[in-house]
Amino acid sequence: MKYLALVYYDEKIMERLSQHEWDALNQECMECVARLSANGHFITGSPLLPTSSATTVRVRDNRVAITDGPFAETKEQLAGFYMLEARDLNEAITLAGKIPPARYGSVEIRPARELLAEGNQAGGNAG
């Protein structure tokens, strides 16, 4: 089953890391991806640029509205994602616990669902 692991942390805390600390964390992330890939758990993923580079798009009454910045102000910001293959939620939790930035923030795990041409349950709930 596919699980999306969303990595969150407080950008202000990360900005206080020295260049050496930041480089070391990024190297850890690359090593984590290598291990996950070698074990068949890594599908795709990417770090994100800071929220200052974000643009939010909304469509209301057939009009597109854009806003600079993220969707909502929060204590922790979305920093990146890992799409994982795991046999169940327990394995996904174990894998997410090894994602290095989890030490600085959190990793939200959410099962991915298949998008069907017809028969999707309203709201995306797999009942």
UniProtKB/TrEMBL annotation:
YCII-related domain location, by residue?
1-114
Taken from the record, one Pfam family name reads YCII
Q: What is the lineage of its organism?
A: Bacteria, Pseudomonadati, Pseudomonadota, Gammaproteobacteria, Cellvibrionales
Q: What InterPro entries has UniProt attached to this entry? A: Dimeric_a/b-barrel, YCII
Family membership noted in the UniProt record: Belongs to the YciI family.
Superkingdom of the source species: Bacteria
Q: What is this protein called?
A: YciI family protein
UniProt organism field: Microbulbifer pacificus
